[in-house]
Design goal:
CATH superfamily of the largest domain: Tetracycline Repressor, domain 2
Number of helices: 11
Low-confidence stretches: 1-5, 8-14
Structural class: mainly alpha
Radius of gyration: 22 Å
Oligomer: single chain
Distance between the termini: 61 Å
CATH class of the largest domain: Mainly Alpha
């Protein structure tokens, strides 16, 4: 039994009864200070105040646990989501919701970037996007390819925006500094960049929305 204090210890210093929820919460907290590659079940057991083998009563292995942790963080994207008679808008809303969920949780972004979770929330997202693309009139192969294009665009946008999103209010100042750098370039060498410097780096949400609209239109032919 580990000697240090664990936030998951129960009364009188005894380990609290393990549950999938508690294990996932502990893993999430540990992953906030490390990464999936260095995360270990031994460290998790230490954090929980139990023998690491106890975790295997709830999860088959480390991959199973990490996929569950990543999938739970996708819940905001699927909670209350209903499809409509407008498949293009369903695609847009799902991708926007997915990106927001990923930006809210850097750990989820880290885990989902390694592959699909194949758990409830990711499966729901996949089903909505594929079904909506099929309703747009795409054949199976084109719909499947379009799905991957949308997922990679959404995930890529979140990965790029995550560092600044974590800084919150600093984002505006950072963009302002970047625009100033472009504005200060030589007009002889970079005339167009200088001319458009004030328009560069608008809201990342605006940029994502514009790109997503263009993608949906191009992929569905609408």
């Amino acid at each position: 039994m580990p000697g240090r204090y664990s936030p998951f210890m129960g009364v009188r210093g005894r380990p609290a009864k393990l549950s999938r929820d508690g294990i996932c919460q502990a893993a999430l907290e540990l992953l906030a200070d490390t990464d999936a590659a260095t995360f270990s079940m031994r460290a998790l057991g230490d954090y929980l105040g139990v023998d690491p083998t106890a975790v295997y009563r709830h999860f088959s292995d480390k991959d199973d646990l990490l996929r569950e942790v990543g999938d739970r963080a996708l819940t905001p994207a699927t909670r209350g989501f209903t499809t409509t008679d407008d498949p293009q808008d369903d695609i847009r809303r799902m991708c926007v919701g997915l990106r927001k969920a990923l930006l809210r949780n850097p750990v989820a972004l880290q885990l989902t970037a390694t592959g699909p979770t194949r758990h409830a929330n990711e499966l729901r997202i996949t089903e909505v996007l594929l079904e909506s693309l099929m309703r747009c009139g795409l054949d199976r192969e084109v719909a499947a390819t379009a799905y991957h294009v949308l997922i990679e665009y959404t995930l890529g946008s979140a990965l790029i925006d995550a560092p600044l999103a974590a800084k919150g209010a600093d984002r505006t100042g950072t963009y302002r500094a970047w625009r100033a750098d472009y504005a200060a370039l030589s007009t002889d060498d970079y005339p167009t960049s200088v001319e458009l410097a004030r328009q560069l780096y608008p809201s990342s949400d605006k940029v994502f929305g514009a790109g997503l609209a263009a993608l949906i239109s191009g992929l569905t032919g609408v």
